[in-house]
Specification:
The protein has 4 helices and no strands. The protein is an all-alpha fold. The longest helix has 24 residues.
Length: 116
């Protein structure tokens, strides 16, 4: 049992290390600071909600998010309102020129490779 616990902890540490290395390799220098700030804020919010539910904080100490009012709309009305006049499908005729250029480049590239 202890072996599984140790292996799980090692796996978590390695996973965290991979995230740190990947974040630093991305070039965004504030990513680790942003991650730790977001983690601290999330833990703080969780503690606040738990304390309010246990009665340690007054109920109005926790921010309440108003739920949006439901919209009573039939499916027909929704589809009518969201309909677009344009054809929603991709037609091959629209991209024929692009496909021909890509094919020509690919063929030229293959001929260039085989000659060297």
């Amino acid at each position: 049992m202890a072996t599984y616990l140790v292996l799980s902890l090692v796996a978590l540490v390695v996973a965290f290390g991979v995230l740190v290395v990947a974040g630093s390799a991305s070039g965004d220098t504030g990513a680790i600071r942003d991650f730790s700030r977001d983690l601290r804020n999330g833990v703080h919010d969780l503690r606040t909600v738990v304390a309010a539910r246990r009665g340690r904080l007054p109920a109005d100490a926790v921010e309440r998010v108003d739920e949006p009012e439901p919209i009573d709309l039939s499916l027909t009305a929704l589809l009518r309102e969201s309909a677009e006049e344009e054809d929603g499908y991709l037609h091959v005729e629209d991209i024929t020129d692009s496909l021909a250029r890509v094919r020509d480049r690919a063929v030229k590239g293959l001929h260039g490779i085989s000659r060297h």
